[in-house]
């Protein structure tokens, strides 16, 4: 088919009812068609709002029901590149048409920043670019951004029982957002952040150039390992280093309520979890629940979910010595392979690793997350006060993720993610709800913000730090006006501490006109008049 006929066919999909966005659509598609080597591919990768598949493509990677409503702003166009050159063309054509790009890899952004914007925008949806090539000999892997962590883990396990990768727990998280924003999982104490284990990357910059590590230079390569990809361009792939894991690992989950001395357990956990053997990672979830013993009364339940890179007997002995308050017994722990531990951490009663390949999990609920860092242990009095507040609020929970180990050995400036030595653990505030509508949203956001405010005395100050991958628009947003640098500094210093200014320098060098921007992107320095 001729280029012109195709173009007319595509353009015919535009109905007259949306003339304004329609005109952007028309000139964007025209531009894309001019750029593409095979313009007959265009119908396969471009979705206008009135395309019958638009809604299902948009919804496929929405993971938070808060951004799945009729009033959620929709993109003018969704582009689903199948080749690297499509990304280059889309960047050039979006820039030419003055329309913003939101890049989506796995869609897990807690504030929907990868697929929602208040200004006209297109989504560059990367799910087709998801190849994973494992090289066991070199102990590396080439991973495109649209791959999920589950796919990566599965493909590693197909080739080796003694290799793994230290990334997030949830298998549907996308490589693109996760690695560019830092990333951590059950092996963070042994091997550091996900992005500490990256050796190369490919990015399409604002001029449509495809650059690898050598071509982009060490400053930009530094920035896209923790500074967030979305401020700098569109990342296509990362090359990562695999890490050794034992053939047999050990997992356990132990729960204690206040009646079962949860306060002593949590208090002691703060001293043990960040300092113990780096082969042991003990995440702790703290929630208000209804008491089983005292009928109808509320209590606090602390659950420890752990992975030990070693044998069952050894972890039971270790914790018997270091953490007698936990009372861990042989029957509490279970040995399995590393890949099985990733299944165990996510699914009840499932053992087959194939489940990690499922890109479409059960339907998501409404949710909000926030983050903090604790640098000195909270006293028992402090914990008991906190339990009362959590029981009053009734809903939001806390997840404590211990650092120490390898995290303490990496300098804060090595990568944009600065929260290393000196941080005992990260706190995630977590709330999920099932009722649609603004009232439920207001209530649930309010509860979470109150818990965050109750925690003020216990967490890092000046700045009160936060983790980029736990995106939280409460901590500041940018309007990209004349105060863009000052506005950016508000959230930027919380996410990146002293690394913020280096990120600004990189941004100023690679995208001085701030084409790649969002509510919390890195601002460039203002141009000198
Ligand atoms: C259920 C769940 C579990 C999680 N568990 C963990 C965990 O265990 N550990 C952890 O560290 N984090 C965890 N997270 C947070 C997660 O790491 C971040 O949300 C991460 O950014 C998601 O990546 P994504 O590609 O799925 O997200 P997306 O929503 O696609 O993207 C997130 C951000 O990155 C940008 N981006 C995405 N792809 C690209 C690209 N190719 N180029 C440039 N910019 C890009 C987006 O524009 C957006 O700003 C979890 C999140 C959820 C929802
Ligand atoms: C989005 O809404 C549709 C229609 O109500 C629903 O089928 C889908 O499961 C929802 N997705 C999420 C993530 O809430
Ligand atoms: C709680 O602590 C008390 C006092 O140390 C102890 O006697 C009791 O056995 C503990 N309970 C549990 C469930 O560990
Ligand atoms: C898992 O198995 C246990 C024991 O058979 C059962 O009690 C539980 O309900 C199962 N959980 C799920 C989610 O199927
Ligand atoms: C930004 O600054 C320029 C130059 O000083 C000025 O003309 C413009 O009105 C300002 N814009 C806003 C939104 O304040």
From TrEMBL:
InterPro entries for the chain: BBE (IPR012951), FAD-bd_PCMH (IPR016166), FAD-bd_PCMH-like_sf (IPR036318), FAD-bd_PCMH_sub1 (IPR016167), FAD-bd_PCMH_sub2 (IPR016169), Oxid_FAD_bind_N (IPR006094)
Signal peptide location: 1-19
Flavoprotein recorded as keyword: yes
Cofactor(s) essential for the protein: FAD
GO molecular function, one term: oxidoreductase activity
Key words, A-Z: Disulfide bond, FAD, Flavoprotein, Glycoprotein, Signal
Domain FAD-binding PCMH-type span(s) in chain numbering: 71-245
Pfam families: BBE, FAD_binding_4
One record GO biological process: cannabinoid biosynthetic process
Family as reported in the entry's similarity comment: Belongs to the oxygen-dependent FAD-linked oxidoreductase family.
Name of the protein in question: Reticuline oxidase-like protein
């Amino acid at each position: 088919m001729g280029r012109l006929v195709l173009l007319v066919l595509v353009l015919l999909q535009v109905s007259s009812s949306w003339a304004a966005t329609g005109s952007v659509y028309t000139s964007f598609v025209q531009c894309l068609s001019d750029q593409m080597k095979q313009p007959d591919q265009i119908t396969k990768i471009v979705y206008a709002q009135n395309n019958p598949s638009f809604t299902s493509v948009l919804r496929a990677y929405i993971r938070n029901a808060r951004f799945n409503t009729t009033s959620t702003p929709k993109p003018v166009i969704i582009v689903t590149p199948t080749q690297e050159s499509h990304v280059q063309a889309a960047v050039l054509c979006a820039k030419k048409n003055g329309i913003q790009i939101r890049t989506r890899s796995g869609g897990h952004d807690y504030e929907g920043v990868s697929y929602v914007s208040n200004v006209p925008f297109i989504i560059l949806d990367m799910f087709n670019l998801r190849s994973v090539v494992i090289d066991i000999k070199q102990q590396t892997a080439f991973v495109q951004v649209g791959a999920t962590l589950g796919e990566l883990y599965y493909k590693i396990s197909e080739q080796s029982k003694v290799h793994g990768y230290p990334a997030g727990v949830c298998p549907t998280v996308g490589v693109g957002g996760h690695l560019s924003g830092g990333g951590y999982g059950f092996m963070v104490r042994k091997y550091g952040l996900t992005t500490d284990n990256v050796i190369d990357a490919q990015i399409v910059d604002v001029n449509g150039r495809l650059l690898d590590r050598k071509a982009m230079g060490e400053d930009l390569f530094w920035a896209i390992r923790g500074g967030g990809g979305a401020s700098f361009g569109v990342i296509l792939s990362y090359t990562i280093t695999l890490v050794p894991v034992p053939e047999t690992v050990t997992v356990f989950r132990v729960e204690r309520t206040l009646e079962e001395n949860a306060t002593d357990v949590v208090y002691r956990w703060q001293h043990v979890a960040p300092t113990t053997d780096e082969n042991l990672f003990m995440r702790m979830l703290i929630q208000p629940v209804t008491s089983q013993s005292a009928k109808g009364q509320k209590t606090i339940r602390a659950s420890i979910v752990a992975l030990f890179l070693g044998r069952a007997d050894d972890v039971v002995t270790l914790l018997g010595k270091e953490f007698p308050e936990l009372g861990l017994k042989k029957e509490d722990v279970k040995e399995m392979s590393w890949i099985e531990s990733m299944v165990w951490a996510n699914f009840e009663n499932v053992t087959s690793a194939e489940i990690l390949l499922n890109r479409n999990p059960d339907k998501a609920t409404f949710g909000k997350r926030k983050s903090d860092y604790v640098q000195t242990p909270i006293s028992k009095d402090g914990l008991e006060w906190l339990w009362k507040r959590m029981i009053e609020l009734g809903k939001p929970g806390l997840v404590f993720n211990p650092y120490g180990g390898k995290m303490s050995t990496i300098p804060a400036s090595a990568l944009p993610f600065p929260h290393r030595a000196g941080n005992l653990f990260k706190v995630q505030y977590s709330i999920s709800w099932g009722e649609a509508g603004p009232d439920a949203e207001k209530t649930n956001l309010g509860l979470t913000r109150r818990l965050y405010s109750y925690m003020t005395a216990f967490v890092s100050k000046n700045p009160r730090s936060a983790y980029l991958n736990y995106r939280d628009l409460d901590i500041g947003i940018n309007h990209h006006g004349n105060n863009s640098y000052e506005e950016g500094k508000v959230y930027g210093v919380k996410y990146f501490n002293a690394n913020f200014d280096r990120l600004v320098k990189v941004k100023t060098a690679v995208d001085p006109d701030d084409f790649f921007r969002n509510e919390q992107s890195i601002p460039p320095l203002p141009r000198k008049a």
